[in-house]
Write a structure and sequence with these properties.
This protein has 265 residues and is an all-alpha fold. The protein is built from 11 helices and 2 strands; from the N terminus they run αααααββαααααα. Among the domains are: 68 residues, no CATH class; 71 residues, no CATH class. It starts with 9 loop residues before the first helix and ends in a 10-residue tail after the last helix.
Length: 265
């Protein structure tokens, strides 16, 4: 049988291999490209800026806090609070309008103490322009216990006329245009109760006591405002006022023939 392939000797075969190797060395074939990574199942996630993530977290936290506040909000007993006199006084100023009373209180109060007070609540307290009997009784009971809301009698009750005397002095100071704060009220209390040392020893005259006493005093109708230093500043004519006070003291001493108890040898 005759073959149709040309015969190749060993030398030519080796020469052909060397030529092929030289050609591949000079002209290397391109590397095979790596297959692309497989995409995960589902829609690919988009990267969000950090500002958007923080803003979304803040909104979620605020909504959660609002829901918590709505769930834990309790019914306020305003007739047992120290603000009832302010509310009734504002109701009188606003000619019995419950809606304007709430707006007035919120606008003239430095904090949010009246945030949960609604005009429907105030409207339900009155009937024909007067407090309902049950609310009037609750108000009278609260004033009878003032300034001690626990129901125990206050040590100031033992000093006959002291409360009225303190109220008179404070009203005179307010009428004269003097700004009042807790320090001024404390000084007036100490001066009036100086004749009742046993009562003065039982009272601490703290900020809380003075605040409750002023709020629950039916004669004053004072409202505490945001703390300022107006009552602690000296007036421009303080020196002249001091001279006039010394002159008045000298005139009163001469009128009542007051003499010093200490003799000068």
């Amino acid at each position: 049988m005759q073959s149709h392939f040309a015969s190749v000797d060993l030398d030519k075969y080796r020469q052909q291999q060397q030529a092929t190797a030289q050609y591949l060395h000079e002209h290397p074939p391109p590397r095979a490209l790596a297959p692309p990574p497989k995409r995960a199942v589902g829609r690919p996630k988009q990267k969000r800026p950090a500002e958007d993530v923080l803003a979304a977290a803040a909104d979620a936290a605020q909504q959660a806090a609002t829901q918590v506040n709505k769930r834990v909000r309790t019914h306020a007993r305003w007739f047992s609070s120290p603000y009832i006199n302010d509310i009734l006084h504002a109701h009188t100023l606003q000619n019995g309008s419950a809606r304007r009373t709430v707006s007035y209180l919120r606008a003239h109060t430095p904090d949010d103490r009246y945030a949960s007070l609604s005009h429907a609540t105030i409207h339900g307290w009155f009937e024909n322009g007067k407090l309902k009997p049950q609310h009037q009784q609750e108000l009278d009971d609260g004033r009878a216990r003032a300034p001690n809301s626990s129901g125990a009698s206050s040590p100031m009750d033992a000093a006959a006329g002291a409360s009225d005397a303190i109220s008179d002095h404070l009203l005179q100071l307010r009428q004269a245009g003097m700004p009042l704060n807790s320090h001024v009220v404390r000084w007036v209390m100490q001066a009036v109760l100086a004749d009742h040392p046993e009562v003065l020893q039982q009272l601490s005259l703290s900020q809380q006591f003075i605040s409750k006493w002023v709020r629950n005093n039916p004669r004053l109708h004072f409202r505490w405002r945001a703390r300022t230093t107006a009552a602690s500043k000296l007036p421009d004519d303080w020196a002249e006022q001091g001279i006039h006070m010394a002159q008045r003291m000298g005139a009163l001493m001469q009128l009542h023939k007051v003499r010093s108890a200490t003799r000068i040898s």
